[in-house]
Input
Amino acid sequence: MPRGPVIRLEGVGRTFDGASSPAVADVTFDVQPGEMVALIGPSGAGKTTLFGMLACLDRPTVGRYELLGVDAGIANEKERASLRNRRIGLLFGEPRMAPHLSLQHNVELPLEYGAGKRYRVRARDALARVGLEALHRARPGDVGPAERRLAAVARALIMNPHVLLADEPVGGLDAVAGLRVLAHLQRQNIERGLTMFIATQAAEVAVLCSRVIAIEGGRVVADERVPGRRLATSSLAAALGKGSAFASAGSETNQ
Output
């Protein structure tokens, strides 16, 4: 686990060309190793802009953004691409899957870019961890939306990132499918200590996190820890009307 904050923002702002006001202004916070943080706010609050900077897809106009001690705000495109591939797991609301490739091949793609080894073994293991080993040969169009999202989770984790950044990870899914995805994400945080930062409008996502940061008008308006956060698997077991080994730890956790 890295020393010091995984993410550090100091006075970060982003103003787009031609805009009369910044999309994000004076954002300052740290994310420590092992935290699972929800970024909440209404549409247009600045979540997407902030997420793009955290994901090294954009740069701040002002302020400083450090990722694992690296000044990502001034890194060039090649350096930011390397950070995205080797240190960040990215998960989007609409999975960006190659439709002509199998789920396994889609999961393998980051390994090919990052010159990884043992593609097939690692991809199959990643799919097995999210319950999709039997579907490794299926194409994205052959499976349901929950399975596509879970395959995207496997791909986001394949490089063993230091932090997972997710943008509306259960957007468009029904309650049960969403809880399946969230259960796997929360397990990675609780059992492996993986740091997560999730941009969402969904209150049911926020209550599963250990900390909630609220943003409005491009500015942070609240930053609070979540006492006794819920376990997704407990909610999923209740929704399905049956027990779960993971849920047996209880319906709340103080981690």
